[in-house]
Design a protein that fits this description.
By secondary structure, the chain is mainly beta. Helices cover 9% and strands 31% of the residues. The strands form eight sheets. It has a five-stranded antiparallel beta sheet, with no helix packed on it. A four-stranded antiparallel beta sheet has the order 4-3-2-29, with no helix packed on it. The chain has a four-stranded antiparallel beta sheet with strand order 5-6-7-8, with no helix packed on it. The chain is globular, with a radius of gyration of 26 Å.
């Protein structure tokens, strides 16, 4: 068979079978599920939507909560079955990625039971929130200060915008249906060091003051959001708070037990920082471990997991999920290495093992360790949520069908379908006890009744790309080995070669799901 004939055959097959195959292979919703997936319900706070969805493992809607506001950005299911969610108020003074402005709480039935507005010309809630055991809410806030305030802290006037934002963490005690008391606060502007102006009280060499923030690190005249914190987590046993600073390429730990009236003093300086020792003058760019990361959180055994997005990696653009063990001492402090950097020097675990440029999200994203040890990973920019097992094999995969242009139809892609982060909740979660968990419809548009298909192993031989459907891409993969006579992957009829017989086997199942 000539190459020209093969090309013609592939083209004809794509014309006759392409639509069928494209329609069969899921492009949105649940695209893969195996028996190894952790049984639970996934909370999906869609970036472009005013809705927050709770889905079962088949991608069917169990509940939804509707707000007046689009996501701003994260949402959580609480133990009483209510939803707490940050919403985007479109504050014109804080028009950048991650902006929120309001925190809302809805009961299971979708009724708004509490809200707290943090949106004005000088401040705005953003990105993430965390719920404390006492029911109070930790929120990340941008606070805008004029250039003079920053120059008075030693920032280079040539690298200072008219307004620059400080990062504030507030603890809100909810009151009534639309109020609250700020009972604790920490703010980054009180913990700055600089080596530019000796006349100022915070003058010093940043490498001698690693618990403070170098106000001139990577400073530019155009960057108001110079820290860009994007996640917050709380550890009850340590009474410590962890935040992720994307632009410093670090995660920071702060002592929440410090009284609010002392958080502006040296007692409020950072307890720990990791990811980029260059930021405190004790390393170079080659020592950087994190790259524009999101979602730093504590997991089992006191370890920390973080999604490193991978922007500005020297060896290319790719994302990773990483786990480290912070060097925690008995007193709640953290030890440094012999080089004067906070450890660890090596990570404990990384996904994927083989670095993959196809796994890349330039923003948002996160990872959650599930009770069975599996890890739920949100590749935020593409709206892709995958669950992996202990062998790093994908055991569940969902693609958000809701984008800025509406809801995608099954068989078509969903552009601009970002998800800030997703969370999986166990079937036995207290917030689900006694609830009506009847499965509704899937979120995507489909012209047939969806089936919740659990895919066994192994897949069928003709499924070369491993997506549990035989489609044109598999045909093209087989044709690349046409004529092979030894150890042939495309030898579907087991005659030792790849030829017409194998082609007919594949064409007979083109457009069919596996196994067939």
């Amino acid at each position: 068979m000539t190459i020209r004939f093969i090309q013609i055959l592939a083209f004809v097959a794509s014309l006759f079978f392409g639509v069928v195959a494209y329609g069969q292979a899921p492009t949105v919703g649940v695209v893969f599920q195996s028996e190894q997936s952790y049984d639970g319900y996934t909370l999906l706070p869609v970036t472009s939507s005013t809705n927050t969805y709770l889905l079962n493992n088949c991608g069917e809607e169990i509940n939804r909560w509707t707000s007046e506001y689009k996501a701003g950005m994260m949402a959580y299911l609480l133990d009483d079955g209510s939803l707490i969610r940050a919403g985007r108020t479109n504050n014109p003074n804080f028009g950048t990625g991650g902006a929120g402005g309001i925190v809302e709480r809805f009961d299971w039935g979708g009724n708004l039971t509490w809200s707290y507005l943090i949106s004005s010309p000088t401040q705005c809630q953003h990105h993430d929130i965390a719920i404390l055991p006492n029911g109070n809410v930790l929120a990340l806030i941008w606070k805008a200060y004029p250039a003079d305030s920053w120059i008075a802290k030693g920032r280079d006037p040539e690298k200072t915008a008219d307004v620059v934002w400080s990062m504030s963490i507030v603890e809100i005690e909810p009151q009534g249906i639309s109020g609250g008391n700020v009972v604790w606060e920490w703010e980054s502007i009180h913990h700055l060091i600089q080596d530019l102006d000796p006349s100022l009280p915070n003058y010093g060499n940043p490498q001698d003051h690693p618990r403070q923030l170098d106000v001139n690190y990577q400073a530019t005249a155009n960057d108001k959001d110079w820290l860009h914190s994007n996640s917050i987590a709380y550890h009850e046993g340590l009474d410590q708070i962890m935040v992720s600073s994307r632009d410093f390429n670090e995660l920071w730990i702060i002592d929440h037990s410090t009284p609010s009236e002392l958080t502006h003093t040296l007692q409020g300086h950072l307890l720990y920082r990791w990811g980029n020792p260059e930021a405190y003058g004790r390393g170079t760019a080659a020592d950087r471990m994190l790259h524009s990361q999101h979602d730093a959180r504590w997991i089992q055994d006191g370890r920390v997991m973080v999604f490193s997005n991978g922007n500005e990696r020297p060896d290319g653009l790719y994302s990773t999920v990483e786990i480290i063990t912070p060097p925690l001492n008995a007193g709640g402090t953290y030890s440094m290495t012999s080089e004067g950097q906070w450890g660890p020097e090596m990570i404990d675990w990384r996904y994927p093992t083989i670095l993959d440029p196809d796994f890349f999200s330039q923003n948002t994203s996160g990872a959650q360790q599930l009770p069975n040890g599996n890890i739920l990973i949100t590749e935020g920019a593409s709206g892709d949520v995958r669950e992996i097992d202990e062998n790093k094999e994908v055991v569940w995969n969902y693609r958000n069908p809701i984008g800025v242009f509406g809801v995608a139809t099954q068989g078509a892609p969903a552009p601009e379908n970002a998800v800030f982060r997703s969370e999986r909740y166990a079937a036995a979660h207290p917030g689900l006890a006694g609830r009506e968990l009847t499965a509704g419809e899937v979120l995507e548009i489909t012209n047939k009744a969806p089936t919740c298909m659990v895919f066994p192993e192994p897949s069928c031989p003709a499924d070369f790309n491993g997506n549990y459907f035989v489609e044109v891409e598999d045909l093209l993969n087989m044709l690349t080995s046409f004529g092979c006579t030894s150890n042939c992957e495309g030898d579907l009829d087991s005659d030792g070669t790849v030829g017409i017989g194998d082609l007919l086997v594949l064409l007979s199942s083109l457009g069919a799901p596996c196994p067939y």
